[in-house]
């Protein structure tokens, strides 16, 4: 099968994330991703996946691939992206995450910042969970949970001074079985690569972490793949069968 | 003690919230882990932290905290200031470390729980 370059932005928040703009409906995200010429996106809201299926449906027939995803918060407040092959796997992870989120009496205005929207831009409801909070799972348990459901675990924005693996834990635990590290739009992959021997063993990727429409696709990673499928991304992160990350 | 009095006594910098300093301080909490503040912060607490991320505003609103005191001369990001102004959460600052700040606050009668 012929391999070609696919542009991916696998870290996008929707209006369900407390920090995501209301304009970030699944439909708008898909529209913007197509306008930016992206091939693959993943909607990764904080500790929830309740808008992921709508994004997948919104993209049906458009040629844009949407991977099921979530950005999980560990008890050390490290953000880790989980990408999955199917919504079924993601929803099993979500069940576990919801069980591990603290019960916090939230004010109405807080809940109303966590909007569940369908593929037609209709508001379906609000998430009652405290999505801003950390789960009671440590980084090892998060990675294990993602892997148990066949997913890929990517440490988010490791160069940032909040919610990154390095900011929270000081360094990347060498025995943490991550599939990749993400750097933020502030740095380049080659710059990050040059900055640390500590992560020489892990692939580096770079995504937008978009919270507003204009940020979508502004920071992407090119993958050499046969098709825009989850299994192909996995091969690319492992550098197997000719698949790989294009650092340009 | 209210925030205005505290600012004067400890010569604190006012990053934002100058108009909302009449609020009384009920107690104090020091932590750099936001989830810990979500779990243990109480209404009217002064929160001592080095975190400058916009989420400190969200946590302060969630827990109805009196204000945030940034230590070590840390500067809040522009987005943090913007959100704090919108939510009317005063953000104060000190060049001192968290240890020094908490010691002085205690000396002024502001206590933990």
Counting structural domains of chain B, the number is 1
Radius of gyration of chain B: 12 Å
Which architecture of chain A does the CATH hierarchy give at level 2? Alpha-Beta Barrel
Overall average pLDDT of chain A:
94
Kindly, what is the distance between the CA atoms of the first and last residues of chain A, rounded to a whole number of angstroms?
Answer: 23 Å
Low-confidence stretches of chain A: none
Say how many strands of chain B there are. Answer: 5
Q: Summarize the biggest pleated sheet of chain B.
A: 5 strands, mixed
Q: Into how many domains do the coordinates of chain A divide?
A: 1
Widest β-sheet, arrangement of strands of chain A:
9-8-7-4-3-2-1-10-11
Strand % of chain A is 15-25%
Question: Which geometry of chain B do the CA atoms define?
Answer: globular
Uncertain spans of chain B, ≥5 residues at pLDDT below 50? none
The outline of chain A comes out as: globular
Classify the helix fraction of chain B into a percent range: 25-40%
CATH class of chain B: Alpha Beta
Q: What is the helix tally of chain B? A: 5
Radius of gyration of chain A: 17 Å
What does this structure look like?
The complex is a heterodimer of chains A (248) and B (113). Helix content of chain A is 27%, strand content 21%. Chain A is of the alpha/beta class and 248 residues long. Chain A has one domain: Metal-dependent hydrolases (TIM Barrel), CATH 3.20.20.140. In chain A, strands 9-8-7-4-3-2-1-10-11 form a 9-stranded mixed β-sheet. Chain A has a two-stranded antiparallel sheet with strand order 5-6. In chain A, helix 7 links the parallel strand 8 and strand 9. In chain A, helix 1 crosses helix 2. In chain A, 50% of the residues are buried. Chain B has 113 residues and is of the alpha/beta class. Chain B has one domain: Udp-n-acetylmuramoylalanyl-d-glutamate--2,6- Diaminopimelate Ligase, Chain: A, domain 1 (3-Layer(aba) Sandwich). Chain B has 5 helices and 5 strands, in the order αββαβαβαβα. Chain B is globular, with a radius of gyration of 12 Å. In chain B, helix 2 packs parallel to helix 3 and helix 3 packs parallel to helix 4. At the A-B interface, loops of A face helix 2 and helix 3 of B.
């Amino acid at each position: 099968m012929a391999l070609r370059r696919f542009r991916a932005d696998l870290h996008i928040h929707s209006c369900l994330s407390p920090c995501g703009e209301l304009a970030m409906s699944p439909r708008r995200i898909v529209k913007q991703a197509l306008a930016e010429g992206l091939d693959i996106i993943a909607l990764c809201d904080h500790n929830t996946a309740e808008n992921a299926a709508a994004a997948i449906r919104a993209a049906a027939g458009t040629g844009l691939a949407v991977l099921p995803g979530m950005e999980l918060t560990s008890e050390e407040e490290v953000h880790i992206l989980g990408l999955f092959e199917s919504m079924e796997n993601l929803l099993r992870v979500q069940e576990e995450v919801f069980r591990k989120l603290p019960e916090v009496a939230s004010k109405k205005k807080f809940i109303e910042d966590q909007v569940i929207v369908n593929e037609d831009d209709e508001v379906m409801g609000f998430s009652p969970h405290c999505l801003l909070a950390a789960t009671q799972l440590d980084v090892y348990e998060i990675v294990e949970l993602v892997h148990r459901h066949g997913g890929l675990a990517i440490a988010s924005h490791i160069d940032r001074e909040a919610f990154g693996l390095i900011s929270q834990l000081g360094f990347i635990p060498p025995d943490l079985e991550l599939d990749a590290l993400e750097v933020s739009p502030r740095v380049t992959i080659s710059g990050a690569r040059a900055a640390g021997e500590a992560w020489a063993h892990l692939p580096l990727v770079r995504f937008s972490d978009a919270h507003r429409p204009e940020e979508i696709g502004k920071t992407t990673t090119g993958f050499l793949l046969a098709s825009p499928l989850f299994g192909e991304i996995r091969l690319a992160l492992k550098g197997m069968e000719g698949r790989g990350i294009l650092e340009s | 003690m209210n925030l205005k009095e505290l600012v004067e006594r400890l010569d604190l910098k006012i990053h934002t919230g100058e108009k909302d300093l009449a609020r009384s301080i009920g107690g104090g909490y020091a932590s750099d882990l936001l989830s810990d503040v979500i779990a243990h912060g109480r209404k009217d607490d002064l929160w001592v932290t080095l975190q400058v991320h916009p989420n400190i505003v969200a946590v302060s609103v969630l827990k109805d905290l009196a204000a945030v005191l940034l230590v070590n001369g840390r500067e809040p990001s522009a987005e943090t200031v913007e959100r704090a102004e919108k939510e009317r959460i005063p953000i104060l600052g000190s060049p001192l470390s968290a240890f020094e700040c908490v010691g002085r606050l205690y000396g002024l009668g502001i206590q933990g729980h």
